[in-house]
Design brief:
Layout: H1 2-11, H2 20-27, E1 29-33, E2 36-40, H3 48-62
Antiparallel strand pairs: 1-2
Length: 71
């Protein structure tokens, strides 16, 4: 899901205003581990909005019945 979110943001398929989501996206990190990838915010910061956006994007891909607006 995070790879898809990253690709969509870079391609301009997802836009969001400055604020919480933009701040969290700037601070969001990934790390290669023995079991795969680990995605998170640095210690003391939040990643809830980024995770929610990734889940919403994933659902919009699975649900192709119409326009999916995230507010």
């Amino acid at each position: 899901m995070m790879e898809q979110l990253t690709a969509d943001v870079h391609a301009g398929n997802i836009k969001f205003p400055d604020g919480i989501i933009a701040d969290e996206m700037r601070n969001f990190e990934f790390e290669h581990t023995q079991t795969g990838m680990r995605y998170s915010a640095p210690s003391g910061l939040h990643d809830d909005a980024v995770c929610a956006l990734a889940l919403a994007r994933h659902c919009s891909i699975k649900n192709k019945k119409g326009v999916f607006v995230i507010v």
